[in-house]
Amino acid sequence: MSLEGRAVSNSRWFALRVKSRCEKVVANMAHNKGFDEYLPLYRCRHRWSDRVKEVEVPLFPGYVFCNLNPEHRLPLLTIPGVLYLVGVGKTPVPIDDNEILAIQVATRSGLPTEPWPFLQAGERVLLEGGPLAGFEGLLIETRKQHRVVVSVSLLMRSVAVEIERNWVRPLNGTCAPVGYLSRVAMETNHNL
Q1: pTM of this prediction?
Q2: pLDDT tens per residue, range 3-31
Q3: Measured between alpha carbons, how far is 155 from 94 in angstroms, rounded to an integer?
Q4: What is the CATH number of domain 8-95?
Q5: Which of 61, 122, 133, 192 has the most crowded Cβ, counting Cβ within 10 A?
Q6: Which residues in the chain are classed under CATH 3.30.70.940?
């Protein structure tokens, strides 16, 4: 990592807003400039008029994550396809380290992941089993599959990861059954 990319003591994860379909090129160029970049991908089936193919696409379309010192962001902003660092006005706002770590663990777990609508309401759970043990998320249920939603609040984007029902426990300290929490989160999602 070059000094231009990040000063060790002040580096944090930030979201780069990039032009549509430029995520992979921007991530590659940021890496080549010495920045610690992260572009979470997932596999999905894409249909063209003559064929269907499985492709890797960004979990957060239009965003690339970079670990950097915001004082040294100019080389990033000069990469073709980069629009801006996500923040308030001209001040970049870092992403919570636990949120980035949860996304990284989820994508490396080998469990199926996919983009998910950002949920502001629903029951928070603690995962006590499986590869995501120790992380928090929102529990939802789709038919017979259970999923936990891990979010990046700053971007108002989320990712759903399939889990086993017995891996979770409610964070609010109540003893409500997990199925009840799933229904509450699902009902809340329909009301958004």
Answers
A1: 0.68
A2: 444 444 589 999 999 999 999 999 999 99
A3: 11
A4: 3.30.70.940
A5: 122
A6: 8-95
